[in-house]
Fold:
Amino acid sequence: QVQLVESGGGLVQVGGSLRLSCATSGTAFSFKNMAWYRQAPGKQRELVAAISNSGVTNYADAVKGRFIISRVNARNTLYLQMNSLKPEDTADYYCNTQPNLGYWGRGTQVTVSS
Structure:
């Protein structure tokens, strides 16, 4: 079974930055299309950013220009650089394949305070 371990979340002020990491195992990571998702309190989980196995990226409109998704295949690791954070970015963030595996890791919590 694929293991997904997210880290890097925390409490940050408006305008700040965070870098999330997702360590994976149990899969041929370099062949997978990967993505970051988030779920805010009381809302459905949504796709934030995606990166194909060839490195093509896509972003939700809400984060375009502020977030950068990247991957290091040699480390089986996915990243999300989040800049110019806003209160509406507050959520639990999860990594997964795209489409998702049907199960999720524990996620990492991001709180943006104003």
In short: Strands lie at 3-7, 10-13, 18-25, 34-39, 46-51, 57-59, 67-72, 77-82, 91-97, 108-113. The chain has a mean pLDDT of 96.
